[in-house]
Amino acid sequence: MIDTMATVTVGFGIWDYVIVGVVLLISASIGIYYRFTGGKQKTVQEYLLADKNMSIIPVAFSLMASFMSAITILGVSSENYTYGFQFVIINVSHLIFTPVAVYLYLPVFFKLQTTSAYQYLELRFGKTSRLAASLCYTLQMILYMGVVVYAPALALEALIGINRVSAVLSMGTVCAFYSTIGGMKAVLITDVFQSLLMFLGVFSVIGAALYQYGSFGEIWRIASEGNRTDIWNFDPDPTVRHSWFTLILGGGVTYLSLYGVNQTQIQRYLTVKDLKSAQKALWLNWPILFCLGLATSFSGLAIYSKYAQCDPVRAGYINNTDQLMPYFVVDTMGHVPGLAGLFVAGIFSASLSTISAALNSLAAVTMEDYYKPFYRYLVGHALSPNKAAIQTKLLALFYGVICVAVAFLVQHLGGILSASLTIFGVVGGPLLGIFTLGMFTLTANEKGSIVGLLSGLSLGLWMGFGPKPPPQRLPTSIEGCEQVLYNSTLLVSKSNQINDTDYMWLYRVSYLYNGLFGFLVTFLIGYAVSYIFRKISGRSVDEEDYDPKLFVSYLSRTLKSRKLGNKTFMLVKRAESCDKINENCRIEKYSRVEIN
């Protein structure tokens, strides 16, 4: 037996390099096109919000592509290979929670028309809440960008022979280039092109399995014999890794944290002309997201049909399950000129779409939440529109450089890959909680919102980073392998000795509930603390001068017309300049006027 893991390396052919090169060239060319057409990205509104004249189709594709990274494609396929098809139920949660995002959260942001989603928190609570939430988002996305670049580069280097440094630099440079010079229009249109490549990459895997086995039914039959097709787990136990409860509730909170209150998506909603168009784009996003999610999940079963009798991980052919899809492509399509290149182009595109979304959004948040307030405080007047446009582009470029730097840093920090992905989940729930606290309640105030956010983050990070028992994998076989490169039997016997009851209950809770628990703690503690401070200060909700636009529709209507005792009051709008927040906008405040 050989003690070390083996990797399989297949060199790229000329057609493979041509396809990948053409994909990167097209992405860069889109940025150049939008730099020299239209308004030439001379204003912040055009650069960050595409002049609010985009059609719903590219926005819908971009909403999907923003968070369907290469990690998702590689990870979901290996998830279904390793643990079964149950994960596909998360798409049901997306359907259930889409109307919540469409009709409750989205209208609030669209009425405000603020470039940064976190400006809402300043208007509703105060500057401290805005800064705290904005910092959470910024740190989260910086770390995630590095992982999005590094993880696929590492997998492709091990299997296909693409140099890791070249892969990281190529993706980072091209993405920073077209995001910086082309602005949001280039990002949206490039996302459409890259989305199609993502579909082609996943479909190529399914097509290769169909070519070998002849039908979907045969692939399903093989997967069924391996106990990978059961999707009817309704166990309510929160320590069950995947069930309808964890996937619907946990997946739903994750979906709302991304599509209801996340800066990356809010910015996309504001690129269309009106609220109805934004709502249509979000509705259209669901079938696109569902199709890619279903295809990616089924690709895991397709890969299993190939390796049902010889698991490449147990046999020592690859290092981990995240390399399954690239290994499958090399093993089945490596001899066909261009097909491996098509797959790599799809993986690159998945990373590019996520990074470009993050670069543009981080530039918007940094400009609106940090730079403009600091500039006004330092200089004494607001930043001019022309300077703001130029400096926003420089911020996007700066974050592109940071993205590449973090990608190289990841390889020296051991467990940072899994750690950063955990952060991406545990931060989303508390951020959803603080926005929900503001939009859905009148009682909440800044003190409660901050205490709630910190409490939710603390619990989420505690759950996410605590020592967790390894999940129980479905059985695999190595009976059909020609050669086993290390003693897998010893590894299996060791894993079976682990007793889950040795771990604290919170650490055994499904990872999908990290966001749910963080959301609930943020909301409940935030509300309770706000209520207590109101009682202590003696300031009731009726004394607040609320802007109805800061709340969901039913609370907004309540605020616009209140009955106090026997007197009816209407809230009459008055406007004040708000250039301290962003140019050409006004804060609307309301005063009570007795009407009977």
UniProtKB/TrEMBL annotation:
Subcellular location: Cell membrane
GO cellular component: plasma membrane
Membrane topology designation: Multi-pass membrane protein
Keyword Nucleus: no
Keyword Transport set for record: yes
Gene3D superfamilies (alphabetical): Sodium/glucose cotransporter
Pfam families: SSF
Domain of life assignment: Eukaryota
Cited InterPro entries: Na/Glc_symporter_sf, Na/solute_symporter, Sodium:Solute_Symporter_SSF
Sequence intervals crossing the membrane: 12-34, 55-77, 83-110, 131-153, 165-184, 196-214, 242-261, 282-304, 339-367, 388-410, 416-437, 449-465, 511-533
A GO molecular-function annotation: symporter activity
GO biological process, one term: sodium ion transport
Annotated coiled-coil segments of the chain: none
Keywords: Cell membrane, Ion transport, Membrane, Sodium, Sodium transport, Transmembrane, Transmembrane helix, Transport
Main location: membrane
Family, as annotated: Belongs to the sodium:solute symporter (SSF) (TC 2.A.21) family.
Name by which UniProt lists this protein: Sodium-dependent multivitamin transporter
Species this chain originates from: Sitophilus oryzae (Rice weevil)
